[in-house]
Specification:
Largest sheet: 6 strands, antiparallel
Strand content: 15-25%
Number of helices: 15
Structural class: alpha/beta
Radius of gyration: 24 Å
Distance between the termini: 52 Å
Number of strands: 14
Bound molecules: iron/sulfur cluster
Shape: globular
Order of helices and strands: EHEEHEEEHHEHHEHEHEHHEHEHEHEHH
Length: 428
Amino acid sequence: MVRVARVEPGSIAEEIGIRPGTELVSINGRPLQDFLDWEFLSAEDEVVVEARQPDGEEIVYEIARDDGESIGVALEPPNVRRCANRCEFCFIEGLPQGLRRNLYIRDDDYRLSFTYGNFATLSNVKERDIARILEYRLSPLYVSVHATNWEARKVLLNNPRVPNIVDQLNRLAEGGIQFHCQMVIVPGLNDGAVLEESLTDLWNLGDAVLSAAVVPVGLTQFSHLYTGETMNREKARELLELVDRWGRKSHKERGETWVFGSDELYLLAEMPLPPAEHYGEFAQIENGIGAVTSLRMRVAEGIRDLPRLEGMRIGVVTGKAMTNLMPELLDKMSGITGAEFVLIPMENSLFGPTITTAGLLVGADIKRALSGRSDLDIALIPAETINEDRIFLDDVVFDELIQELPIPVYPSYDFIDILASEELAVAA
Ligand code: SF4
């Protein structure tokens, strides 16, 4: 069902009487299944919309609008397609009990893959979905391939009924769809020859595969399903050797890197992260591919704009993964600003010591890090730790937490965003 959540003031929708709660039934005679239908079918300049008002009255709207003019409705969030797999390494299976309910939703939804870049396995995609992907040209899609070998993939996804991903990708590629792919590596299952086969199959899809990422399995202290081997430095190095060999091949033959190891893989391998040129357009940055290099770039670009901050002591809270990478950046910023930066790497109290990513720190970690730190003037925390409602993963509310802390605390993406801001100038 497609239902209106909000109507933009002054919009066409408001003018013709569409109200929050109105159910949008069809456009130009085509029934609306979800937000995708609305988005694509309402793109015409003239549309006939059949709708049902909140009181049950059925109504037909004839809408004509200027090129590019929005109808002005925001829809209720869609029912997310649930995942039919049960991967042993699933991060959601590794969440502790008692978090807010929506964190436990295992989505596997090609629509969210196209709209938001969420990775989907395509294992629940039916014939009618393929037809929609092709009709609406939902491209690029972000696909969790893990292994192209069918038998290996069934084991990895813990689902004997997964379709053959190579056939699926081929069919979609013939219709012009492109993909960003990822392989989450479980040592002993999809590394070595299986990974070689996966990269070969993806490479043979030509331009359809825009990038392929190799990501180490990430487990929390609650990953109760996992029976596989753990990732370690040697395995990470083996993976990076393979990634590097494929990277050189793709550079030579296609002029771009094409295959990427995640930042975490380099950190596990204790190897230097590649420079910015390696990542091209940073297509999988949300997947942790090039995020640290991008941070370094943003600091390098913004550092000259930083004001002098002599005498300030600035706490920087981060995850354990950044312990060795951060001092170089902080030293540079200290040189320009005159401020003293105090690095505070924290262990993750919710997920356990194996989860070292800064963005997954929780409110309790920030509290532990900064309570009693009145020796600092301000502190920066990773902005990724809070959602759009400013709530941490452990349900701690940022605005309530900061009332309990002795110093001002700023969520920051790249230090520059806060240190060069007027907000800080006022506080300083
Ligand atoms: S595909 Fe696997 S990892 Fe992804 S949500 Fe489903 S079970 Fe979890």
